[in-house]
Amino acid sequence: MDNGYVSMGSAARGLKNIFWGCLLIFLDFNINHIDIIPDMIGWVMILISLECFEDFGINKSLVSGLSVAMIVFNIIGFIPMEINFFTLMISFLSTIFSIVIFNELFSIAAKIAAYMGDHSRAQAIKSCLKVYIVMSAIIAMLGGGLIIVPFVLVVAIVIFVVTMVMLYHLNYVMREAQAYSDGR
After folding, report:
1. From residue 104, how far is each of 50, 67, 174 by CA, in Å?
2. What is the pLDDT of residues 55-89, one digit of tens each?
3. Is 119's pLDDT higher than 90?
4. Cβ(55)–Cβ(1) below 8 Å
5. Residue-wise pLDDT tens digits, 23-44
6. In angstroms, what CA-CA distances link 86 with 25, 80, 129, 157, 164?
7. Which of 30, 106, 109, 111 has its CB surrounded by the most CB atoms within 10 Å?
8. 3-state SS assignment for residue 30
């Protein structure tokens, strides 16, 4: 972004991978408690997308390191375990890691929207991101919902709605970046 020209085609490709990766991560596809499309695929798609955002100042080493950790946590999740301190700690860490990753990724989407002149969309993404971070932190602090189940369910519903709105905005910015790149 510093040199005045940004490859919007590259940004659009990266946003597309982030969109589909986030969709796979946020929505669990299970049959009889068997994850048929693991979150791991979503995290790999996010890792692939990082190369596309060199111009936007993404902290690639942080996001790639945390994404690899999330892949490892996902693999560990396939092993049946009792709920104990170790599993609660993995759950807590994965929530914190995902908050950091999604903060970076959606901040990039907001920067791209602002770069294209859509400041209201950039602000909407930032607002949704703040709500997502606060609600996810509340869930993490409550120990994954083991304490106050009805409250956690309400927070989970809010997170779901905010996540879908964030994905809508991400999809919009992705399409606009592609159109911006085609028109250039």
Report:
1. 11, 12, 16
2. 777 788 899 999 999 999 888 877 877 878 888 78
3. yes
4. yes
5. 998 887 777 767 777 788 999 9
6. 22, 13, 29, 26, 31
7. 109
8. strand
Residue pair 76/140 in contact (Cβ under 8 Å)? The answer is no
- Residues in CB range of 125: below 8 A, 6 or more apart: 106, 109, 110, 113, 166, 169, 170, 173
Q: What is the dihedral of CA 148, 160, 63, 45, to 10 degrees?
A: 130
Distance CA 88, CA 70 (A): 15
- Residue 133 or residue 143, greater confidence: 133
Q: Measure CA 99 to chain center.
A: 8
Planar angle of CA 65, 68, 74, nearest 5 degrees:
145
Domain residue ranges of the chain, discontinuous segments joined by +: 8-179
- How far apart are alpha carbons 34 and 31 in whole angstroms? 5
**Strand (E) or helix (H) holding 31:** strand 30-31
Rounded Cα distance between 14 and 45, Å, is 9
Rounded to a whole number, what is the largest CA-CA distance in the chain? 55
What residue spans of the chain are helical by DSSP H? 8-26, 39-49, 60-77, 85-115, 119-141, 149-183
Closest CA to 121 of 112, 131, 130: 112
